[in-house]
Amino acid sequence: MRLTDIALLNLRRRKGKAIFLVAGLLIAVSTVVTMRTLVEAMTHDINHKLEKFGANILVVPKTETLSLSYGGMSLGGVSFEMEELLEADLAAIANIENAGNVAGVGPLVLGVAEIGDKRVLCAGVDTSVVGILKPWWKVEGELPGPDEVMPGVEAARILGLARGDTLFVAGRELTVSGILASTGSQDDQLLFTDLKTAQTLFGKEGRVSMVEVAALCKDCPIDDMVNQLSGALPSAKVMAIQQVVKGRMAALGQLKKFSLGVSAVMLFVGSLMVLVTMMGSVRERTSEIGVFRALGFRKSHVVQIIFTESACLSLVAGVLGYPLGLLITKFALPAFTEGRAVALPLDPVMAAGAVGLALLLGLVSSAYPALAATRLDPNEALRAL
Fold first, then answer.
1. Cβ-contact 252, 39 below 8 angstroms
2. Among 42, 96, 129, 241, which one is least packed by beta carbons within 10 Å?
3. Summary count for the chain: helices (H), strands (E)
């Protein structure tokens, strides 16, 4: 009879302890797989959202301004000089080194429209890039075209506008093409119209008030792009809107640290379960090990038997731990991704890592019980028969 056969027969005789050991390793390995897969899926989800975040670089005219604010209270400012942004200059954006990271460029024209006895801020936008720059917009109707206007939900309520209504801005009749649903931002209080229409209304042909730039945020060098845009547009001030991006990445970093902590704790608990189970098994088999030694088995043979038992159970835990971790992640992920479905592709490297981790954990935790078994005195063991 081979040593492997002895190990397998012992596992069959002690099914309860074998199941307990597999359960301990299974919980540890599946937890590690779950946490790692969850973090990777959330990272992919956040990168996907950041790529569709909208405008994250703002280009505005240079201004020399003294800020009149103190203690969080703003009293306005004094502008000494302001330069206009020329629409023709925006073509230089396509020539910067990281132009491939630019997803969309949206010039914006701002002006004050007088409608009856009310003054409303009006914004002319390039509707062809609205889907990239403002993916959160939901319009009840259509985006504005020439001679059309789209009020925000608050502006529509205050002005009493509905889809299909007409109003006059600077003596020009505009038709309401749709209503912008609530965004929770200043957009709710604005009137939006076509860029060319706004330039004509406010006498700003060929000029823009500001420019919104959407850069693909996954691994894109935002700071480098800001410097490149500043060089391409010397008459403009370029700023990166990074607060939300940094906030999400910081939260993800904290989650990664938390996942490492949870994984370490679960691995420690799993190793303790293996250690306790194998030590109990060695104590129960004191007489058996004594017989083996009396029959001529060496210490290395006893160690091999115990390691074989541990390796077999660890292998089962590793093979089952990866799919169980994926299953847990599938049910847990919607709670972390706002209900959005995120694909969980099979990762052969992680699957092999789960099996390897289980084997390593099982063998390392069985080292002390195996050493203890070799220290048993055959004579004392035989007297216990």
1. yes
2. 241
3. 11, 15
Rounded to 5 degrees, φ, ψ at 76 are 100, -160
Contacts 24+ apart (CB under 8 A), 156-165: 158/118, 159/115, 159/116, 159/118, 159/120
Contact predicate 148/159, CB 8 Å: no
Which residue, among 188, 187, 144, has the nearest Cα to 166 in the 3D structure? Answer: 144
**pTM strictly above 0.70:** no
- In whole angstroms, how large is the CA radius of gyration of the chain? 34
Distance CA 216, CA 51 (A): 5
Query: What's the token pair of residue 196?
Result: 């060319």
- Tell which residue, 260, 276, 313, 306, has the closest CA to residue 23: 313
Q: Helices (DSSP H) in 106-221: which residue ranges?
A: 130-133, 153-159, 195-201
Task: Say which amino acid occupies 216.
Answer: L
Per-residue confidence in pLDDT tens, the chain, 385 aa: 576 767 677 777 777 777 888 888 888 888 888 888 888 887 777 666 655 555 578 888 876 555 444 444 444 444 444 467 888 888 999 888 888 878 888 899 998 988 888 889 999 999 988 888 888 899 999 999 999 999 999 999 999 999 999 998 888 899 999 999 998 888 999 999 999 999 999 889 999 988 988 876 555 677 788 888 888 888 888 887 765 556 666 766 777 888 888 888 888 888 888 888 878 777 777 667 767 766 667 777 778 888 888 888 889 888 998 899 888 888 887 776 655 556 677 788 888 988 998 888 888 888 888 787 777 666 665 555 5
Cα dist from 207 to 66, 87, 146, 203, 352, whole Å: 25, 5, 18, 9, 59
Report which of 220, 254, 216 is spatially closest to residue 50, judged by C-alpha positions. 216
Q: What span, in angstroms and rounded, lies between the C-alpha atoms of 303 and 293?
A: 12
Contact 381, 293 (CB under 8 A): yes
What are the DSSP calls for 296-362, one per residue?
Answer: T--HHHHHHHHHHHHHHHHHHHHHHHHHHHHHHHHHHGGGTTTT--------HHHHHHHHHHHHHHH
**CA distance linking residue 293 with residue 288, whole number of Å:** 9
The label of the residue with tokens 């003294």 reads 66
